[in-house]
Amino acid sequence: MTPDSLKPPVAAREPQTTPIHDTALQDDYAWLRKKGEARVTEYLEAENAYTAANMVGTEALQQKLYEEILSHIKEDDVSVPYTDGAWEYITRTEKGQQYPRFCRRPVDVEEAQHEAVLLDVNLLAEGQPFMSLGAISISPNGNLLAYTTDNTGFRQYTLFIKDLTTGATLTDTAARVGSLVWASDSRTLFYSTEDEQTKRQDRIFRHVVGAASATDAEVFHEPDERFNLGVGRTRDRKFLLLEAGSHTTSESWFLEADQPEGPFRLIAPRVEDEEYDIDHRNGFFYIHSNRNAERFQLLRTPVEHTDREHWQIVLPENQDAPLEDVDLFSRFFVATYRERGLPVLRVYHLDETTGLLSGSTDDIRFPDPAYAAYGEINRDFFAQSYRYSYQSLVRPSSVFRYDLTTKQSELLKQQEVPGGFDASLYESRRLWFKATDGTEVPVSLVFRTDKFTPNKSPLYVYGYGSYGYPLPLGFSASRLALLDRGLVICYAHIRGGGELGDPWHDAGKMMVKRNTFTDFIEATEFLLREGYGDPKRVAIEGGSAGGLLMGAVLNMRPDLFRVVTSHVPFVDVMNTMLDASLPLTVAEYEEWGNPNEPEAFSYMRSYSPYDNLEALAGKPLPSILVKTSLNDSQVMYWEPAKYVAKLRTLKTDATPLLLHINMDAGHGGASGRYDYLKEIAFDDAFLLRELDVQ
Predict the structure, then answer these.
(1) Rounded to whole angstroms, how far apart are CA atoms 329 and 355?
(2) Which residue from 1, 13, 367, 508 has the least number of CB within 10 angstroms?
(3) What is the C-alpha to C-alpha distance for residues 221 and 219, in angstroms, rounded to an integer?
(4) pLDDT at 112
């Protein structure tokens, strides 16, 4: 390290004022937005050098953590095969290879010599610092593979088509592609594309294999900047679907899959704050919707009469359990409910003639107090069984097949966890506490029983609380390194998330967003009162909108936390939400509010982390690690960079404040699996050092 790298970088202060609503926003670090300028690159590299210098002495720990994590991962592995037409499809990972290989073999043939590689992402990644596979779709006749890749992390995907009979990649291509779907003729491909500036998927094109992309017909354009487009198909493959959705409203069109030249027809016109998605069975569209049902219900309507006046209730709203999803088949459907915030898979049998409910209802329930469960790949519309995935905080990911006749579940595969993993050493719990306003809030936690000491164990709390997204409670091999060192790891299911349906989301967004932050603080205080952690050793973490959470709660209660890890944090709320030219901004008005409206501006400004850092001036601060990526298209790198630069001017104590920028990745960090594990080991080394855990 050079002497300069041992000192925190000092960003030049160049005030920029934005007048708005009889006030003004001042931003001293707006110049950091000039990506590619020499002084911006130099500053970011100086931050990385300073972080590296601060982490000197942790190299051995990082390596040890990496090796521990890797020891619990089966490097040579294969997925459970699934059948689609005449083929069985599998995904392989191989030791030393960063990326998966997608393969297939004829149905009922297991010999390796009959297995063909469809796509080896390792080959695509050669010579690239980043590689992400986006959409992937195989033509109905099984001969063509359409796929998209991004080699920067900016989530800007390019379309390719591969001839699986020859192995050749065709000249057919298109830029900025999102979703894909084939028509029944296996030569017509529909795809969506994004706007160059806002990255909103706003157009649908029809491509005929062999034709130049310049001749592709535009079949739909969505002018409303709140909405994104996507294409798909019904499980029975009879219809192609075109869907438009904002954060609160959706709309769908359909087209006979064997008539790709025809026009898409509207199901029902969009109505503000109403969402619906559809599937098809025997001449009826089945509609999962929140129309007159805040927690969603299932309806159906004849294909010939799709407007709302013909919608007929199949499953009414359940006031105690939101209807999260529906998987529809010829003789049954599986509804995913959330009971007390946890998923339940409920099997409903259908009368073959009427298509309405028939016979008993069967629940697939699960043994752990905190878990994740969801439908697996189920391509066969006429199936007599249902594949689903289940895992928990203490139970590795497993794939089951539920038999509709026997009503029994058969384990097809459980994720192997090598390295001496013993599930009996770990315990998970589900707790509830009452927030100050009386709302009950759930918390899930896991710890190693022989390492747990009430009131003395280090406590780690993770949160998100936005977009109606429920925190996944799955198994993590990388989490074992922390659990084995005695950390109690907790997940706070705060308002703004989706654990308890749309009402839970609505209670933590827009003009009540502060509920998200107070819930997290109160969750941490509750866990400490209950003895799950040492008040002097509390670590918290969040990413993206969870990074906003980290910034907000740090401004509110810096005394409560010892370590804060913030990934790609959305911390510059006002400047970002006032810039409609940035990706996502206009669509995000339905989540955060529109700051061009005075009341929303005032409320958003009251919690925006970057705009309220002065509250931390001169106060003792936790150890802070902020991570971002240069090519992030969702939270631009300059948000965390500006945040750290400003916080440095207010900080007076000696605790670390570090910024690390991945110069070759996007929102999710490194794309290769080994590189990603090294990033986790780096974060864990910082966390353990600052918590004084060996």
Answers:
(1) 11
(2) 367
(3) 7
(4) 56
pTM: 0.96
- Cα–Cα distance, 313 to 194 (Å, whole number): 36
The tokens 């106060």 sit on which residue?
A: 619
Identified catalytic residue from 72, 280, 660, 667: 667
Residue 398 contacts residue 391 (beta carbons within 8 Å): yes
Q: Judge whether 128-274 and 421-671 match in fold.
A: no
**Using CA atoms, how far apart are residues 441 and 438, in angstroms rounded to an integer?**
9
User: To which residue do tokens 């990033």 refer?
Assistant: 679
| Residue 102 bridge partners (DSSP) | 91, 119
Per DSSP, the residues of 304-367 read: T--SGGG-EEEE---TTS-EEEEEE-SSEEEEEEEETTEEEEEEEEE-TTT-SEEEEEEEE--S
Identify the residue with better confidence: 108 or 231. Answer: 231
Strand partners, 460: 489, 539
Q: Where are the domains of the chain?
A: 75-127, 128-274, 276-416, 421-671
For 428-481, how does the pLDDT look when each residue is reduced to its tens digit (9 = 90+)? 999 999 999 999 999 999 999 999 999 999 999 999 999 999 999 999 999 999
- Annotated catalytic residue 632: yes
Instruction: Kindly tell me if the per-residue pLDDT of 367 is higher than 90.
Output: yes
Per-residue b or e along 588-627, where b marks 16 or more CB atoms closer than 10 Å to that residue's CB: bbbbbbbbeeeebbebbbebbbbbbbeebeeeebbbbbbb
Helices marked H in 119-177:
121-124
* CATH number of this structure's domain 128-274: 2.130.10.120
The answer to whether 667 is a known catalytic residue is yes
> Regarding the domain with residue range 276-416, which homologous superfamily does it belong to in the CATH classification?
Prolyl oligopeptidase, N-terminal domain (2.130.10.120)
Instruction: Determine the Cα–Cα distance for residues 262 and 267; give it in Å rounded to an integer.
Output: 15
Instruction: Please write the tens of the pLDDT for every residue from 672-682.
Output: 999 999 999 99
Mean pLDDT across the chain: 96
The fold of 421-671 is: Rossmann fold (3.40.50)
One of 27, 150, 519, 632 is an active-site residue; which one? Answer: 632
Neighbours of 215 (CB within 10 A): 8
Quote the distance between the C-alpha of residue 688 and its chain's center: 26
Q: What is the tens place of the pLDDT at every residue in 86-104?
A: 999 999 999 999 999 999 9
Question: Is 683 among the residues known to form the active site?
Answer: no
Are the CB atoms for 457 and 532 separated by under 8 Å? yes
Q: What is the pLDDT of residues 333-354, one digit of tens each?
A: 999 999 999 999 999 999 988 8
* Three-state helix/strand/coil letters over 216-262: CEEEEECCCCCCEEEEEECCCCCEEEEEEECCCCEEEEEEECCCCCC
Which of 184, 289, 544, 623 is catalytic? The answer is 544
